[in-house]
Write a structure and sequence with these properties.
BirA Bifunctional Protein, domain 2; 21% strand; 424 residues; single chain; Rossmann fold; alpha+beta
Length: 424
Amino acid sequence: MAQYQAVRGVKDIFPEELAKWKYVEGVIHKLASFSGFQEIRIPIFEYTELFQRGIGRTTDIVGKEMFSFRSDPKGRSITLRPEMTAGVMRAVLQKNLLSSAPVHKFYYISELFRKERPQAGRQRQFSQFGAELLGVSSTVAVAEVISLMMQVFESLGINGLKLRVNSLGDMDDRCRYREALKAYFVPFYGIFDDSLRERCKSNPLRILDSKNLSIQEVITEAPKLYDYLSASSIQDFEEVLYYLTELGITYQIDHRLVRGLDYYCHTAFEVTSAELGAQDAIGGGGRYDGLAKEIGSSFDVPAVGFAVGMERLLITMEKQRLFATLNSKNTLVYVVLQQPDLECYAMQVAWQLRKAGITTEIDLAKRSVKAQMREANRIKSSYALFIGKTEVMTGLYSLKNLITSEQKTFSLEALLDILQSPIH
């Protein structure tokens, strides 16, 4: 019988690596709560129309990358979520949350699914953390979510990141700009492939996001969206830049920056890392004031948010050796059995230690004392606690510090006091 392999584009995460994920997730949970964001969890699949209308039918995500299937009794198509924003907005509208409070702040750490070509930091099942601030349309709200994102990066110790910002203007600004782009790109149809020609017809802004090296010079010389912004859109953008400056957040203005999803407006931003190579985006976001109406709401819901790829974040941290001191197992005490028939007694001692909040491991394979000590060192235990007939008779236990090699004897009560103290 053939041995089963994981499906291409997905990844198993074992305990040593999972400790890194939990460390990063812990920082996210802490900082999000400090900023008043509450965690939200939504279903992993939605009706396909939600993403078609919310993300945009002309985007690569909807056109090429979604995992969709017919499972609904009425024959409606269902899609594994390729992004979170549309689903969060759907959930807020369905629950009618905005009737109870004008502003809601949510964050998430969630699994997503896209039919992408698997490569480093880009899987078909992947994770993102992000935040959505719903109900207020202001430059302060934009600064709020950007500051949370950058604070997470700073707290994790990541260096060398670049924050790029741009204004996409309002709908009228983009309509004027789209017409100017179409006129500019017409002479280059001969060098465009089918995909680029389709983008030019449906949404020429997306050509600016192309990674096709053969047209980079064409893109560089294209009209700038900034030149088509209204006075109010320019003022809006300058206010965002003012807040970022006052918060001490370094940024670069990039007039070529566009986001790949159709629901963005006004400020858009992206963070890149040199550690990731050509596909250098680690995360980004922006305002999306028109999304609610696009997915069926009778009224607009001003909103701003961001998403960061967890796999890409961890790759960047690995390359900067930010996990070098992270103890993945962190087992404090390893109980060493000196005689196999004392297994039950040793389990009782381990149970007492665990009840006291002390991380404890015990041999389950009936190995020799020498083999148990090798295992204790392998999993980086701080202490070895020996259980033999003498310990059973006297109630006194030999505790060896595996870092200093110092060994002393204690009663169980004294042992608990020592191991529970801040300094062992």
